[in-house]
């Protein structure tokens, strides 16, 4: 198995991930009030997804996370799409990111390429709760056991692994059982690898309430898991979470939290400041706390990623 994260980090001390996809699409006029969320745009306006990926690469991102977070056979079936049509859309999510990466890289000079790694494409694997569209990715306590979760994820993983991504991004997972299910599936698939990233509710626990350190320790033996960490989490929790897992694994740690704005579920809107400079300064602290892969989740933008790249990789500016 080739480990693309290990290869990247052997050449550069930090991998910069991209930022939000869905909320960035909303800022460009997409209406995502839909159970399919950003996967809806795969059907209606795929060129916008390409554009967002390209803008993140231009901002300094070394990794693009595809628009497949909400893309499941079950969710597409509810929209009247059969398995074949659903698979094509999942493949499209990967192809759009790959095309944006290749076009961006071709447009750089040799001198510019020497300053940064050739970007990777990570196929997003959202949690079972994202398919349910009921917020349970932030609660956990699923009705499915580990075997049931493996059965749910297996068909999508097979499609995404065949679509040309460099690795999988198993993200916003609320609990260890789902993380183990995905790790076991990757372990059983020749050549598969990916990161595992939990949603967390405070400075020590994932969304279900398990200690992040215990989760990291449990996943450390899986060779197919190439990085471990958290995403879709309030940024103020990140230092404590990183401190809590220190020494628990030799795998690289990744963090891509939300912007710091607060979501008002009652009014379906966001409140609070969005400050790229402050986000970048926080990212510097996360790096000092041990994170080797840093990006953003909900409400972060290419401006945030550009600020992180300018601060933590000045030569690539």
TrEMBL record:
It holds the Pfam family S-methyl_trans. One of its GO terms (molecular function) is zinc ion binding. Zn(2+) binds at residues 232, 297-298. GO terms for biological process: methionine biosynthetic process; methylation; S-methylmethionine cycle. Keywords: Metal-binding, Methyltransferase, Transferase, Zinc. The keyword Hydrolase does not apply. The keyword Transferase applies. Residues 3-312 form the Hcy-binding domain. Its cofactor is Zn(2+). NCBIfam families: PRK09485.1. This is S-methylmethionine:homocysteine methyltransferase. It comes from Zobellella denitrificans. The lineage of its organism: Bacteria, Pseudomonadati, Pseudomonadota, Gammaproteobacteria, Aeromonadales.
């Amino acid at each position: 198995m080739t480990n693309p994260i290990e290869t990247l980090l052997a050449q550069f001390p930090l991998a910069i991930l991209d930022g939000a996809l869905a909320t960035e699409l909303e800022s460009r006029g997409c209406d995502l009030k839909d159970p399919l969320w950003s996967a809806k745009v795969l059907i209606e306006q795929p060129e916008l997804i390409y554009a967002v990926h390209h803008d993140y690469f231009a901002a300094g991102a070394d990794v693009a996370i595809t628009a497949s977070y909400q893309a499941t056979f079950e969710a597409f079936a509810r929209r009247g799409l059969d398995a074949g049509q659903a698979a094509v859309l999942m493949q499209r999510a990967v192809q759009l990111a790959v095309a944006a990466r290749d076009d961006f890289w071709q447009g750089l000079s040799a001198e510019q390429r020497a300053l940064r790694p050739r970007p990777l494409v990570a196929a997003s694997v959202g949690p079972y709760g994202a398919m349910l569209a009921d917020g349970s990715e932030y609660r956990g306590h699923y009705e499915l056991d580990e075997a049931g979760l493996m059965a749910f994820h297996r068909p999508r993983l097979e499609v995404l692994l065949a679509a040309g991504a460099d690795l999988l991004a198993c993200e916003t997972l609320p609990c260890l059982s789902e993380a183990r299910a995905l790790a076991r599936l990757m372990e059983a698939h020749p050549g598969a690898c990916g990161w595992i990233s939990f949603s967390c509710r405070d400075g020590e626990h994932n969304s279900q309430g398990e200690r992040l350190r215990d989760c990291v320790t449990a996943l450390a033996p899986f060779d197919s898991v190439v990085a471990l960490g958290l995403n879709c989490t309030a940024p103020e929790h990140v230092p404590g979470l990183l401190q809590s897992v220190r020494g628990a694994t030799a795998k690289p740690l990744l963090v891509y939290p939300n912007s710091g704005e607060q979501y008002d579920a009652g009014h379906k809107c966001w409140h609070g400041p969005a400050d790229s400079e402050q986000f970048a300064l926080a990212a510097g602290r996360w790096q000092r706390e041990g994170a080797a892969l840093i990006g953003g989740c909900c409400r972060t933008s290419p401006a945030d990623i550009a600020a992180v790249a300018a601060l933590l990789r000045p030569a690539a500016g």
